[in-house]
Specification:
Elements (H helix, E strand, L loop, with lengths): L1 E8 L12 E8 L7 E9 L4 H8 L10 E8 L9 E4 L6 E4 L5 E2 L19 H14 L6 E4 L7 H10 L3 E6 L2 H10 L3 E4 L6 H8 L4 E6 L3 H9 L1 E9 L18 H7 L2 E4 L9 H14 L6 E5 L4 H10 L5 E5 L1
Length: 329
């Protein structure tokens, strides 16, 4: 009998998450049946989407939602041999018995010198989200100017780098001087700390006086209102996240963007990476190719210990991380 540690959502979040929202439980797992596998988590992911999705996808008492990179330690399923590694939506748990339906095997030629944790980051959901936002939603063209906020996060940092590969001018906004320095290291043309600039409007104008063709939106709220005013006519906005409102107890209201969108004839589209699931295998190979060529760089914010998952999640929502937030079991 294998014991699994799990983090349960005991009470839905009201405002910013608290340690008391979570409870660590231990459960006994059955032996894997025919067609099933037993997984052991190696790395787990914490991501901003967990905050709003917990409300619509979870009930109190459920294991927290989330993705992990796991090793197959017992297998009655030939598709997933013992010792192989998979990415699975198993939630916040150390061990899982499942039939393999939602598991994705790591690409067979995964390079030895690349950490498997990147399958939860730049060679995983965040990397795919950045790629599809750039190519499928925004359709960026060489010579265009792109703005990305939360630019030092798991998605934003990849967005800026892919836009540079595509020949764009890239402007990034982040919440600390250390994050701004990181963006400069990645090759962003302009980067600023939105918390210390006197005026967001002036900072955006100074970074790109002629305005912005494309805006990769991760933040929402007042930032979005100001940024839309800086869009060029026929500008495109990819709405990936809205982290500034995730912990609100009272919904934010106005100002509303409709007149600006009409006058500037803007196109705004919300999206999730799952829309292009059929492209994932090819897209992951492209991301890995750019990484191996040195065109993409990854930084991880690693927290050690499964028991620290709630703290890592809350730290992510506070903006403690630079790059991808990962828990190493």
């Amino acid at each position: 009998m294998v014991q699994a540690k799990t983090w349960i959502l005991v009470k839905h979040f009201d405002g910013f998450p608290k340690q008391s929202n979570f409870e660590l439980k231990v459960e006994e797992l059955p032996e894997p049946k025919d067609g099933e596998v037993l997984l052991e988590a190696v790395f787990l992911s914490v991501d901003p989407y967990m905050r709003p999705f917990s409300r619509i996808r979870m009930k109190e008492g459920n294991v927290m939602i989330g993705t992990q990179l796991a090793k197959v330690i017992q297998s009655n399923n030939p598709a997933f041999p013992v010792g192989s590694h998979v990415v699975g939506r198993c939630g916040w748990r150390t061990h899982t018995v499942c039939d393999g339906t939602d598991l994705v095997a790591i690409m067979p030629d995964w390079p030895q010198d690349v950490s498997l944790s990147l399958a939860l980051g730049i060679i995983g959901m965040p990397g795919l989200t950045a790629l599809y936002g750039i190519e499928e939603v925004l359709g960026v063209q060489k010579g265009e100017t792109l703005l990305v906020n939360a630019a030092a996060g798991a998605v934003g940092s990849v967005v800026g780098q892919i836009a540079k590969i595509k020949g764009c001018k890239v402007v990034g906004s982040a919440g600390s001087d250390a994050k701004v320095a990181f963006l400069k290291e990645l090759g962003f043309d302009e980067a600023f700390n939105y918390k210390t600039v006197g005026s967001l409007e002036e900072a955006l104008k100074q970074a790109s006086p002629e305005g912005y063709d494309c805006f990769f939106e991760n933040v929402g709220g007042p930032f979005s209102t100001v940024a839309l005013q800086q869009m060029k006519n026929f500008g495109r906005i990819a709405v990936c996240g809205s982290i500034s409102v995730y912990n609100d107890t009272t919904p934010q209201t106005g100002p509303y963007p409709h007149l600006t969108m009409i006058f500037k004839q803007l196109k705004m589209e919300g999206f999730m990476h799952s829309k292009w699931e059929h492209k994932h295998p090819e897209s992951l190979k492209r991301l890995m190719g750019w990484l191996k060529e040195g065109k993409l760089h990854s930084r991880e914010h690693i927290t050690k210990g499964f028991e620290n998952m709630p703290a890592a999640f809350m730290g992510l929502l506070r903006g403690d991380n630079i790059g991808k937030a990962i828990i190493a079991v």
